[in-house]
Amino acid sequence: AQGAALVDSFSRGLVLRKLLPIDPPKQAFSALEEDGKMLMDPAGYARYDGYAEAIATLNTGALVNNFHTMRPLYEEAYGQLGLNPDDFDNAVIRVLDRILATPEIEEPIALTRKSVMYQYADPQLEQLAPIQKQLLRMGPENIRRIKEQARKLRAGLLNP
What we know:
- This protein is α+β, with helices and mostly antiparallel strands.
- It is built from seven helices and four strands.
- It has one domain (2-158).
- Strand 1 (31-34) and strand 2 form a beta hairpin.
- Helix 1 crosses helix 3, helix 3 packs across helix 7 (140-158) and helix 4 (88-100) runs antiparallel to helix 7.
């Protein structure tokens, strides 16, 4: 049921850390100040290289086969969450579409600081779903790697 809950939260754009089967990066988020502007530190992208590598090297064919073989169990677990089991496929596609819609920004991203939390200075970035903001923190190269895998997975799921 944890996998179904993860799909549900991701499909709504949320990142519920307690559901993730991985530990967060050990290094803290870092920002730097340049010419009076607060910027996301590109050196911090490396915190996520291992995660991006793990996702990029997943066997897409095996994932697709597993999805289709195990679909009844996934749908049952999704239904146990009080959700429509028939919507599980669509929820997975919504997750992939949200990942694919995440912008790839090459220049350092401007930030503002509200108390102890950083926000994106660009209102369009600040309005992104939490999962997309998380991807931005991974950096453009890691985003590209994850999006490539999402494209393959989406194509495989829609064209078995």
